[in-house]
Amino acid sequence: MIICAKNEANNLVKNLPGIFFQSYRTTHEVIVVNDNSEDESKYILEEFQKRFKNLNVIPLTQEAIMIPGKKFPLSMGIKSTRYEVVLLTDADCIPASDLWIQKMQEGYAPGIDIVLGYGAYYKKNSLLNKLIRFETFHTALQYFSFALAGKPYMGVGRNLSYKRDIFIRNKGFSSINHIPGGDDDLFINKVANGNNTAIVIDKDAHTLSEPKTTWGDWLKQKNRHYTTSKYYKPVHKRLLGLYNLSNFLVYPLAIFAAIFFNWWIVLLIFLARLGLISFIWKKAMSQLNEADLWSYFLLFDIWMMVYYIVFTPALFKKPSKKWR
User: Which has the least CB within 10 A, 239, 266, 281, 306?
Assistant: First the structure.
């Protein structure tokens, strides 16, 4: 498995033990690419190496020219691995159980080159936390559903696996090196198809990370993520665009139709839609260990309209050149 770390000393101390103490029946290596860190990461990794012989540290001391973001250190990690199956996560993530590697590995079958996992956030008692976790759940619901429908379009770097061979055969990130982000979603968008992609939603296969604690930090994070979606394949952009547009228009159109047409017919259709969404979300939230969010489903449904107003401008912004 591979972790890229840039000034992540505190997270390495906190989360790496959860990586090493995995109940996995065969040998594996843990690669940490130390990307020009200026904190204590070097010394912390040296101490870990004394105890864990399967830790391979790749120190980078120079920035890659004209390759912004995380793709160069990640490429170095993938090219250095001794094994065919690559499992990715971030330094600020920890496996939800000691079966994480095993469960993600079980997603592979003949013909499968990519396994998409779920990267969850810790549960906190705040409105922002619930909105962050719902947005994470809703995004996962989309990319898991698209994958099951034979049209996979993205994965998340917090919990993602693919074979080294598919990375090499597609020349790595060469076609998207000029884009700061996209080491997870854009790469998967390029190489995934309905035959080579599987999903793993088992609760033991999740990863956990700390969510943002201020609205400003979260808005900045989401704006950065959405700047890459403009590079998706046209078919994915059309389908996602139609889905998002329907979520945005449902309440305004329902109000308009209720005023100018038969309000009771509108109400019946609206309640039927709400019941269907409630059923789907409850089942999916339970499977992804987010069941506590279901009681707020009506709030989240309304929030989606506001959400698209807030983040649509990010689609037209120029991506940031920094990944940390």
Answer: 306
Alpha carbons 162 and 187: distance in angstroms, whole number: 11
What integer pLDDT is reported at residue 318 of this predicted model? 59
Nearest C-alpha neighbor of 94 from the set 198, 225, 1:
1
Sequence-distant (6+) residues with CB within 8 A of 181 are: 69, 70, 224, 225, 227, 228, 319, 320, 323
Task: Tokens for 16, please give them.
Answer: 């790496």
Going by C-beta distance under 8 Å and a sequence separation of 6 or more, which residues neighbour residue 260? Answer: none
List, in sequence order, every beta strand (DSSP E) within the chain. 2-5, 30-35, 55-60, 85-90, 93-95, 114-116, 119-121, 160-163, 197-199, 207-209
Averages of pLDDT over each 10 residues, the chain, 324 residues:
95 94 85 94 95 94 79 93 95 96 96 97 95 96 97 96 96 87 91 97 97 89 78 93 90 90 91 95 96 95 86 60 53
Which pTM does this prediction carry?
Answer: 0.91
Burial class from Cβ neighbours inside 10 Å (0-12, 13-18, 19+) for residue 264 reads: exposed
Report d(CA 114, CA 192) in Å as an integer.
7
Which residues 6+ apart lie within 8 Å of 197 measured at CB?
Answer: 112, 113, 114, 115, 116, 147, 152, 188
Phi first, then psi: give them for residue 34, nearest 5 degrees.
Answer: -90, 100
**C-alpha angle 248-254-258 in degrees, rounded to nearest 5:** 160
